[in-house]
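$ fold --in a.seq
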Amino acid sequence: MTATAAATATPARRRTRTGGPGDRSGLLETLLGWTLVVVIAMFVTQIGLM
């Protein structure tokens, strides 16, 4: 890898959001996730699978 290629690849890697553990996307995503869990639990309970 040349110095020019390394210099252009580094800033792109810093800006890329992958959704991994280091990507802090905030409270909204957490609330939506827990809401989905509760809705699925209510659905499963209503149809009698538990």
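$ fold --in b.seq
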Amino acid sequence: MRVSELAKKASVTAETVRHYTRLGLINAERDPNNGYQLYDKVGLQRLHFIRQASELGFSLKQIEEIFQQSDSGDSPCPLVRDLLQKKVPETKFKIAQLQAHLVKMEDALAAWEGMPNGAPDGHSICCLIEEWEGTK
């Protein structure tokens, strides 16, 4: 199947297919008659795998490592478990950071509610941010 057909079947863009091909995550053969890239069912299977792994938070580099282990005949499952076990606390930490950031944003909005809009006067850019005490 051609790039557009594979993209449609995998619910991704044609550029995504080309990008993964350039990275070596999926492989294509060239049609000798017209030079088009042709993909087989393995390409579709890999595209689905990439999407699933991405949804779990795996990077393309990590997905490449998983493919390399699988392609060499070794089970990548221990690697996948290890990577995900490391990702869970990292993700929890990021969520905590985002929640703290959200609190700051909500505090700023609440503090600014009664403040007037100021015009730049050469000494001030935006009085809302400059007078906000969340960073002090």
